[in-house]
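Pilot study result, target chain (252 residues):
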Amino acid sequence: MAEGRPSGVLRGLLVLGGLGLLAAGAAWKQLPKATERRIEAAPEVVGLSDGQSYAWVMRTRNGVALIDTGGDASGEQLLAELRQAGLKREDVHTVLVTHGHQDHWSAAHLFPRARVLVGPGEAEVVRGERKLHSLAGQFLARFMKAPAVPERLEEVQEGQTLDVDGEQVRVYHVPGHTPGSVMYLWRDLLFTGDSLLGGGGEVVLAPVVFSESTVQNLASLKQLRDVPFTRIADGHTGLTSNARLKLRALLK
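Predicted structure:
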C-alpha cells in the first residue's frame, strides 16, 4: 500500500459512514413537523418551536421552569418569550432535559442560576463523554456545533417526584431513544421529548435512525399504560390530545 493512501477497506468504511450520515440528514426531514410556532398548553405552559424542536416554558410561583430548550444555542425565541412576560434569564430556576440530543438542550447554558436535570447516565451524553450510535446521534455530533455544557448538571432517577418551585413533576425513565431518555409528568400533561411523538392523529415513535433502539423505546412505553395523563407535549410536533388512549393503541 502506498504511504499516506487509505486502504480499500478504509475507503469503503468512509463511504459507508458518509452514506449513513446523509441518510440521517434525509431522515431528519421525515420527522413529524411542528404544528405551530407557539402553543399554549395550559395557562402556565407555552411551547415554542425554534424550527428544530420545542422548548416548553412553565410559569411557577417564583419564576420559570423549562422542559428542553431547543436547538438554537442563542435562545432567541426563549429569551423573547421571557422578556414579553417581564422575566429575565435569571428567573429560570430549573431546566428539565428529556434526552441528550443537543437539539433539545442547546440553550440550557443561558440560564446560569438553573439546575439542569437529565436522565440516568445522560449527563455523560450531554458532556460528550459518551457517544451515541444512532445515525442521527452521529449526525448531530458531527455537523451541529457543540453548545456550551450547562454548569449545574444533575441526574434524576426513575420514579422520582421533583418539587419544581411548588409544582410536582414525576420522572419516568424511558430508555431507547437514548439510554437516559426521560419523560416528565405534570398534572395531566406528559412531556415526552422524542420518546413518543404525535402525528397524523396518532402517537408514534421517532424514525429508527434517530434512536439507539426503537425496540427498547417501545418496551419502555408499556409502563405508561395506566399513568394518569391525557395529553403529551413532545419535542417536534407539539401537543397531542387523548394521548393515553392513542398510546394503548400503539402498544397493542
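One observation from the pilot: Residues 12-17 have pLDDT under 50 and may be disordered. A full batch analysis is planned for the follow-on phase.
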